[in-house]
Specification:
The chain is of the alpha+beta class. The protein has one helix and three strands. It has one domain. Bound molecules: zinc ion.
Amino acid sequence: MPIYEYQCLGCGHNFEYLLRPTSPAPACPACQGAALEQQISLAATSSDGQRHANLMGAHKRAAAGRGEKQRAAHTESHHHFED
Ligand SMILES: [Zn+2]
C-alpha cells in the first residue's frame, strides 16, 4: 500500500499517511487542516539512482530541520488546546 508524505500548509507539520482504498482524505494530525502539500513518495521508484539518492539526502536533511521546530510547535499547540 502506498505511503504518502504530506506537509501541512497551515502549520508546517510533516507526516506520513498510509492511503488505503477506504481511507478518508488525509488531514493534518496536528491542526486537522486539509491544506496539504504532498511530498516525494517514499515508495517512489527511480531509474536514476544517483538523482534519487540526492533527493533522499536533501529530503532527510530538510525533514530533520523541520522536525525540531515541529516538536516545539506541537507541544505548544497541545498546551493551547488543553488549556
Ligand atoms: Zn497542520
